[in-house]
Write a structure and sequence with these properties.
Binding site for [4Fe-4S] cluster: 196, 203, 206, 212
CATH topology of the largest domain: Endonuclease III, domain 1
Keywords: 4Fe-4S, DNA damage, DNA repair, DNA-binding, Endonuclease, Glycosidase, Hydrolase, Iron, Iron-sulfur, Lyase, Metal-binding, Nuclease
Low-confidence stretches: none
CATH architecture of the largest domain: Orthogonal Bundle
Structural class: mainly alpha
Largest sheet: none
Oligomer: single chain
Distance between the termini: 36 Å
Catalytic activity: 2'-deoxyribonucleotide-(2'-deoxyribose 5'-phosphate)-2'-deoxyribonucleotide-DNA = a 3'-end 2'-deoxyribonucleotide-(2,3-dehydro-2,3-deoxyribose 5'-phosphate)-DNA + a 5'-end 5'-phospho-2'-deoxyribonucleoside-DNA + H(+)
CATH class of the largest domain: Mainly Alpha
Number of helices: 11
Mean pLDDT: 94
Domain HhH-GPD: 46-194
Pfam families: EndIII_4Fe-2S (PF10576), HHH (PF00633), HhH-GPD (PF00730)
CATH superfamily of the largest domain: Hypothetical protein, domain 2
Radius of gyration: 19 Å
DNA sequence: ATCCCGAGGG
DNA sequence: CCCTCTGGAT
């Protein structure tokens, strides 16, 4: 089989997966709470190795105390640390939040930049965070958000053989229409939480089981 | 013990 | 590639 038709097969499969997941999760949206692009950026930095539910428990108090980039840039770092502590990695996260906000104030007029390259200059921001902010704050589909769920499900479904998230993203982008890139990530995240869990995937009630090479077909 | 919408450094 | 950063939930 040629590389072109193998990709065609995977593309067909990816589109079928997306169609089914759109039906299963018709109202899937970004589950982080925020009012502004800066707040979404901060919430996304906090979401590293942490559930969104936990992030949403700390951000109301954080944004009440420090509502924008200027406030976070001028904050006492230890106060940020205290407010975000329960999300884990709290010293790095506080430092990155403040560092990113200072750069936003000094270089970008207090607004989150809309260019991928500029976002990647911010401390604590790599492609995953940049993709989330661009897609949900600005409606810009610069890439495919690859978090732990998107990586795991894309691998299990046989759409990538990579484990490095940047390589997973490169494999996924040509398989999906650009306008569906964030739809893909959001639905896979929902499905990863509800069905295709890391430890005990519920293959017996998965609507993608017939398409999935990783499904446990053994009968007990 | 393992995982959660990661990123940076070696 | 590897390791570290960190707390909470299961």
């Amino acid at each position: 089989m040629s590389g072109t038709s193998r990709r065609g097969f995977k593309r067909q499969k990816a589109l079928e997966i997306l169609t089914r997941l759109k039906r299963l999760y018709p109202d899937a949206i970004c589950s982080l709470k925020y009012d502004t692009p800066v707040q979404l950026l901060v919430a996304t930095i906090l979401s590293a190795q942490c559930t969104d539910e936990r992030v949403n428990k700390v951000t109301p108090a954080l944004f009440d105390r420090f509502p924008d980039a200027a406030a976070l840039a001028g904050a006492d770092i230890s106060e940020i640390e205290t407010l975000v502590r329960s999300t884990g990695f709290y010293r790095n996260k506080a430092k990155n939040i403040q560092g990113a906000c200072r750069a936003i104030v000094e270089k970008f007029g207090g607004q989150v930049p809309k260019q991928m390259e500029q976002l990647l200059e911010l401390p604590g921001v790599a492609r995953k965070t940049a993709n989330v902010v661009l897609a949900h704050a600005y409606g810009i589909n610069a890439g495919v958000t690859v978090d732990t769920h998107v990586k795991r499900l894309s691998y299990r479904l046989g759409l990538t053989s990579q484990t490095n998230p940047v390589k997973v993203e490169r494999d996924l982008m040509p398989l999906l229409p650009q306008e569906d890139w964030e739809n893909w990530s959001i639905r896979l995240i929902y499905h990863g939480r509800a069905v295709c869990a890391a430890r005990k995937p519920a293959c017996d009630r998965c609507i993608l089981a017939d398409l999935c090479p990783s499904v446990d077909r053994t009968v007990s």
